[in-house]
Amino acid sequence: xxxxxVALSGLNATDNPGPGVGVARSLREDKGLDPKMLGLVxxxxxxxxxxxxxxxxxxxxxxxxxGKSAFLERISQLVAxxxxxxxxxxxxxxxxxxxxxxxxxxxLGVKTFLPDMAQFKLRGKEHLGQLAEELxxxxxxTKVVNNLEELKEACEEVGFPLLVKGAFYSAHLVHNxxxxxxxxxxxxxxxxxxxxxxxxIEGEEINLVGVGDGKGGSLGQxxxxxxxxxxxxxxxxxxxxxxxxxxxxxxxFLARYQWRGAFELECILKDEExxxxxxxxxxxxxxxxxxxxxxxxxxxxxxxxxxxEIEPVKDYEAGKLFxxxxxxxxxDMTHFKNLTLHGHT
Length: 345
Fold this sequence. Notes:
Rossmann fold; Dna Ligase, domain 1; 6-stranded antiparallel sheet; 4-stranded parallel sheet; 12 helices
C-alpha cells in the first residue's frame, strides 16, 4: 500500500476558524494512519499553512469559482509531486466542486468520503422545514423571499428580532426593518436568491458532529452544548452532553438519507423541544473536541474512504469542557514568500 498523503483545507485558524486545523490535529493523533499532510490554502496568511508540526507542506489553490479545469490541474500536480491519494475539503464553497469532480479525482487515485450532490443540496435552508419534520424536530418559522415586498411581509409576520439568511450561507440578526433591508441586499449581493427570513429562537445551542457510513449507519458522533460564542456564533466554550433525542434525530437522518461523510446538526433547545437551525455537510471548527474525548471522526472518515474495516465509535464522557483561546505563532517569512511567489511552501 502506498504511503497515505492527505490534503485538507480550511486552515484559517482565526477568530472565524475553519475546521482544517482540528482535522489535522485529529489525524496526527491517530496511531494507525501516519499520514503526510498537505495544506490547501487560498490565502498565504492562513495560520495552519505555517504550522509545520501539523502540515508537512502547504499549497495555494485556485478559488473554486475558477472551475473544474483549474482545480483538477492543481490536484494533478499534487498527485505527481507529492503522491496525493486522499482529500478532505473542509469549506462549504469547495464541496460542490469536489463532489462534481469525484470521477476525475478517483481516476487520479485521490479518494474522498463525501455526500453526493443530491445529499449536499439537502442542507439548503429552504429544505430544512421538511427535513426537520422527517427527523422529528421543530423548525423556527421561516419565510422564503425574493423581493423587497415579500421581505416586508415576512418581517411583519415573523416579528423582530429575526434572522435574514442566504439559502446556503450567511445569517444576519436584525432588530428593525431598515436593518432587515440592509441584510437582504448584502445576502443577495453575496449569495443570490432566495433569501430566508427566520424567527429567532432563544434557548440553549446544542450541536452534534458525526460521520455517516453511506449505508444508513454512523461511524461515530458527539454532542456538545455551546456555553460561549463569538460575534460570528463560533463556539469559544462548550461542554460535551448526551441528549437522547438529538442522537436519535441524527440516526434518523443517516438512515433516511444514507448520508456519506462528515456532518453537523446545529440546533436550539427550548422547553425540551429541539429546533433545527442548520445541517452542515462537513466537519465544524470544533471537531477536535470530539477527538479529545475519544471519538476521532476525521480518522474514521479517512479509514472509511480507504475501505478499511472499522467499528463505530460512539462512547464518550459527558461533562468535558472545551475552551478556545488565542495563541501567537512566531515564524520567519520563508513560508509566506514561497506561498506567494511559488504557490507552495
